[in-house]
Design a protein that fits this description.
The N and C termini lie far apart (about 60 Å). The chain contains eight helices and ten strands. It is α+β, with helices and mostly antiparallel strands. About 5% of the residues have low confidence.
Length: about 270
């Protein structure tokens, strides 16, 4: 005590047991740990680079399961797995259309596919009901795509290994893979909607499984969902090709074709 006042002393976090310090850090976002916290000092950086911290963060996200850990060659990289997280997320990039047509290949090229702004806060999107009436408000901001009078398609190839999947899981566990998408016409114009998903081997040529869906929509405001589950697909799947397409049925100038939202390719790990 100095001058009648108690002196405040700092308590270095790194002096607490390592397990407690890791537990505290595990509640912070992963990017903050790497970009901010690791720069505090060498002691913090050492803890943040440890696999035990990222193991704990993976446990908090509930993204670990027995087959993944028991059948992995060499040391398991929990930090890499945490950021890849391939088994509990949508493997399609830009599925909410918030980045225009980024990550998607278009045929034909041009503006036949247009981004149609449809944030869920809007009361009425262009010619159909708000999507949140059918999916709820848990997806945040969403946009949808809309086609024209010319039949147009968009496609994306998913490299499962590059996304973080392990060959043992793909070939021996083979968890179900769920594909889905929402689609709608307009109140004043019917439309056509096609979706095709193909599973390829490592050479990208050998077709191992596929699913197709085709629909002629009458004019209306309602949204519909197509959903399919790939079960017991053959071993060797390394790529998933996702394609959807459509047009309007009246050949009207402008963008009166089918609306598409939230295309999804995701593993179903609930029972593993």
């Amino acid at each position: 005590m100095m001058g009648g006042q108690m002196q405040k002393e700092e308590f270095p976090l790194t002096e607490v047991p390592k397990e407690i310090f890791e537990n505290i850090l595990s509640f912070l976002p992963g990017k903050d740990l790497l970009l901010v916290c690791s720069r505090v000092n060498k002691e913090w950086k050492t803890v943040i680079e440890s696999q035990s911290l990222w193991h704990l963060k993976c446990q908090r996200l509930q993204i670990l399961f027995a087959d993944l850990l028991h059948n992995h060659d060499g040391p398991f990289d929990f930090k890499k797995y945490y950021f890849k997280n391939p088994y509990t997320r949508n493997l399609l990039k830009n599925s909410k259309a918030l980045e225009g047509v980024k990550h998607w290949s278009l045929t034909p090229l041009g503006d036949y596919y247009r981004n149609e702004t449809m944030f869920i806060k809007e009361d009425q999107p262009h010619g159909s009901d708000p999507l949140h009436k059918f999916i709820g408000n848990n997806f945040g901001d969403i946009q949808n795509w809309v086609t024209s009078y010319i039949y147009s398609s968009r496609e994306q190839m998913i490299d499962l290994i590059a996304e973080g999947c392990h060959s043992h899981i793909l070939d021996h566990v083979r968890p179900p893979i769920v594909i889905s998408e929402w689609y709608a016409a307009r109140f004043d114009c019917g439309s056509e909607f096609d979706m095709e998903v193909k599973m390829f081997a490592e050479n990208k040529e050998e077709l191992l499984d596929s699913h197709q869906f085709n629909c002629n929509l009458n004019a209306g405001r309602q949204w519909f969902q197509i959903k399919h589950v790939f079960n017991a697909y053959p071993p060797g799947v390394r790529y998933i090709h996702y394609r959807h397409a459509g047009k309007d049925r009246k050949f009207w100038a402008g963008h009166y074709g089918v609306k598409m939202a939230l295309p999804t390719v995701q593993f179903e790990m609930n029972n593993l």
